Amino acid sequence: MESINRSKILVVDDSKVNLIVLRGLLQSYSADILTALSGKEARQLLLKEVVDLIFLDKLMPEESGIECYKKIKELPNDNSKTPVYLTSATEEDDIKELGFEGFLKKPVEPEALSAILEKYGIKKAVDKIFNDKKADLPKIEGINTGKGLDNAGMNGKIYIKILETFGESSKQAIRDLRYYIKTDDMENYIIKVHALKSSAWNIGAMELGNEFERHETAGSNEDYHYIKVNYEHLEHMLMEVSKEINKYFENRKEAQKDTKKEIKKIKEVKEGFVENQVKDCLQYIEDFEDEAAAKVMVNLLQYNLDISTKEKCRQALGFIKQFDYDAAAAILTGLYKTGENVLL
């Protein structure tokens, strides 16, 4: 097979769910994926790394995607010329006039993403097709899990991860929304419901996403009375969906209890054990099995490793917990040399 140079793609979005979804869709392409949760974080990264393509969320706290785009164009390196695509649930009429190369609609359709990547010569790195349609999908009230799986590119592992992330982040989302309502901060309220709208649609919570959209539209039309009158209903819907998601994961963990007990058992160190564990962890990272990858690192840290190796394992564990898989893989790759089975 002809070798393909790897491109670099930056995805900027204030929603972790949206980042995980787009990263998952991009994983089979010949590209290294960088992520940022804000415009400021994106620019800090772009001062260090030159990328080939940028996907930039339209509405984010502190500054919008359009404001961030203008600052990117002023960067003192080649990133000022990097093509930028605006991501949003609704397309801007004047997107070309604003300078963007184009628009990517949320939830992201794999075919639309593929068309953009092909335009810049970014092709599939592997002939890996995810098709988990026949897999046992979780049954969660208020969520069309089949639609959510479609949005995750038919990758069941990615879908489970975005479900978990949505559930874990819901409490903070509710605290944020309550604060914006209490302080009459409609600007940040609109930005928040915008992010939650696409996140809800991504997991298949279509009615909840539609309710977020109604609040976003009301805010854009300055109909703040509608927002305040209907906020309690919106919060109730979010709490109910979050409760059902968390119930699913609690039941899932209970069912896996025996397996987890086995994982926690510490075995006697044998020759090549550490190297094999690092190799397994790299595979888990590639498969987006961050919980399993983290478990491997936790277990390794209980062994009598040399100071350098232990510190690298700690760093890798930290990056795994932050969903920064590229950084974790880079550290672990430095520990493992394929084919030689030796610890460096």
UniProtKB/TrEMBL annotation:
Gene3D superfamilies the record matches: 3.40.50.2300, HPT domain
Keyword terms of this UniProt record: Coiled coil, Phosphoprotein
GO biological process, one term: phosphorelay signal transduction system
Coiled-coil features, chain-numbered ranges: 231-258
Domain of life of the native organism: Bacteria
Residues recorded as bearing 4-aspartylphosphate in the entry: 57
Free-text function comment from the UniProt entry: May play the central regulatory role in sporulation. It may be an element of the effector pathway responsible for the activation of sporulation genes in response to nutritional stress. Spo0A may act in concert with spo0H (a sigma factor) to control the expression of some genes that are critical to the sporulation process.
Protein name: Stage 0 sporulation protein A homolog
